[in-house]
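Q: For a teaching session next week I want to show students how multiple molecules come together into a single three-dimensional assembly. I've collected the sequence lines for a complex. Could you give me the predicted structure tokens for the whole thing so I can convert them for display?
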Amino acid sequence: MPEQVDDRSVFTLEEVARSIQKTLSDRYSSSFWVKAEMNKLNYYKHSGHCYPDLVEKKEGKIIAQLRANLWREDYRRIDHKFLTVLQEPLKDGIKILFQAKITFDAVHGLALWIVDIDPGYTLGDLEKEKQDTLKRLKNENIYQQNKLLRLPLLPQRIAIISVETSKGYADFLEVISQNPWGYRFFHVLFPALLQGDRAAADIAAQLERIKKVTNHFDVVAIIRGGGGDVGLSCYNNYTLAKTICTFPIPVITGIGHATNETVAEMVSFSNAITPTKLAEYLIQLFHDFAVPLREAERKIADRAKRILSEEKAKFQSEVKLFRSVTENVILTNRNEIKGLWQSVRQHAQFTFKQEKESLRSARQDLLRAATVRTALSRQELKTHTGVLLKDTGFQLKRHKGTLSDCQGRLQQHTALLVKQAHSELNNMAKNVTNMSPANVLRRGYSITRLNGKAVKEAAPVREGDELTTILFKGRIESVVTAINQDTDHE
Amino acid sequence: MNEPINYTRAFEELQTIVTEIEQGAITVDELSEKVKRAAQLITICKSKLTTTEEDVNSILKELDAAGGEVSG
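A: Of course. Below is the structure for the complete assembly, covering every listed component.
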């Protein structure tokens, strides 16, 4: 009851709260179904109760927000139901359809008391998120992008996104590290949370790190296992899926659960149901390389041997053929030669005989002819000798007469010629005596000399030159005073 | 021929030689050369199966240099 203070009714806070509580409980007597987004679950471990934070958003903005209570027993029941139906626990950030009553507590205020939650609605919502992600990736035309990359023949260098202590990681390493064929892998762990609300962002962040060193890796493997089949809705996250789609090298997944494939698995280059299977997939790729290699080794060796043995057989048969052909040819030729030799011998003998015969007859002819000829020639010779002897005596006599006649005439002529020559010689001697310089000088001629040389003309003589004049008896030295070039012989 | 050959190319070249030899396209004159080459290629491919040259430390260093936090 309100207290009257100066004409005013004044209520206590408890009275107000009780009034609101009464009004609300009168107005909202029964429970009803509400849909909202559970922004935060706000689970308190100690008490086991949850105080979910419920919101409704419109175009990203909160247009309604209410606090709720989810008591321990209800929470356990509902969470179990979620795990069964969704393989997801009750968690932050999901849309829920719940049955609630409005409660008002004098201390804690207004709250929705959640009695039940329909997991089917949330499932639909999660499925819707998955479908939305797929649709966006396909619209952006990147859904296939990672699948279309080329994995190296030997994806040997692996960037692993996993949790170091997880069973999946251990399984994976066991297969690739301890394979009995000695295949060698190189791997680096990039640790990330693999399930729950933070997993998507965590994995995407590690992918971004790996992107900086992709040149050192052939493939990225996202490995999860041993964590049960819950908390996988993060793999439907659009951002994570897009990072995988557009990753520059192939991303392979071994997330390890048997229910519906998540988007991350669908868009990855290759997906295996478990980490072990994923490791076996890589081993198989190595087999795909190693087996043809062994085959190649065997085939090349076999074929090479076969080629060689075939060539050898061919060669031997050629040799055999060659030998048989040559032997045949030699035999034929030998027979031919033998035949020819015989025929040549026969011919030769025949020819010799014939020639000998004709030679003998020729010799007889020759002898006969020679005998006749010799007799004839002897006769002729005798005749000629007689004539010659007669002729020679006569000729000799005649030539002797001519010879003595010529001798007499020769002597007569010679004496005459000698006499003539004698008188001619005497005349010549007289002339020569007259012409000697002494006789010439004696007749009044003189020799004039200039510098020892006889002067025959006036031209080279100059006034003042000293001349020597040689006379028959004595000499005169004179100096030239005048020169006359005229010639004046008598 | 002395430059290191990529194992993928080695594998392809080896397959070519196998095909050639299977189809009888290799004469006895080329045989020795081809077999020698095939042996080289097989050695390259086999060694690739069982060895790697990557070094974790150098990758971590590179990540550091790129500004990522290292927790590998």
